[in-house]
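Q: My labmate handed me this sequence with no annotations at all. I'd like to see what the chain might look like in three dimensions before we decide whether it's worth expressing. Could you predict it?
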Amino acid sequence: MLIPLIIAALAGYFLGALPFGWLIARKFGVNIFEHGSKNPGATNVKRVLGGMFGKRGKRAGDLAFILDALKGAAAAGWPLFLCGTYTWQMQITGLVFALVGHSFSCWTRFKGGKGVATSAGGLFVLLPFPTLLALVAWVTVFQVSRYVSLASIVASFVLPAAAWIFDVPPAFAILATVLGVFVIARHRSNIVRLCNGTENKFVKKPADSVSSGQS
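A: Here is what I predict for the chain of 215 residues:
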């Protein structure tokens, strides 16, 4: 069992470590680690590039989110093609290490995003219905508050709660709980700013101001 898990961990880490946000920003001549919240998550990429390049920059931020989500989906999904005895263990290991790779990428001196998109992509493969409920919670909170960070934190509570309520396999419910806690922990600075009333909102303007980056 050890060898399949090691393979899943390595594949997951190097998938997660692909620094799409950083690479996309570089295409625009921007070092994303020097702007905005200084992390390469999709929200920060969209805020920074959108402010500099308008709609083209915002689309680049959307692309970063999609690619980050696909990393998680790939890490959790590829073991399904093996149809082996340890498939679900490999799926969980792959997604966990994809999140580690995204947050601490070896290609960017172990700096990275907050894991929202990567977690969402992987969990949609493993827990489609609870993940859909978390997405609805994210959209609802964001539309009401315009805080990306608050929406992500609430979704990180809703996902594990839904996983336990709907009686999914215990291993997947535990994974959802662990990843929810991890994502919330990665939002510590946002939580402080929310409590202090200093967190930035996503305001609809010609040059949008998007809240502090995460993904």
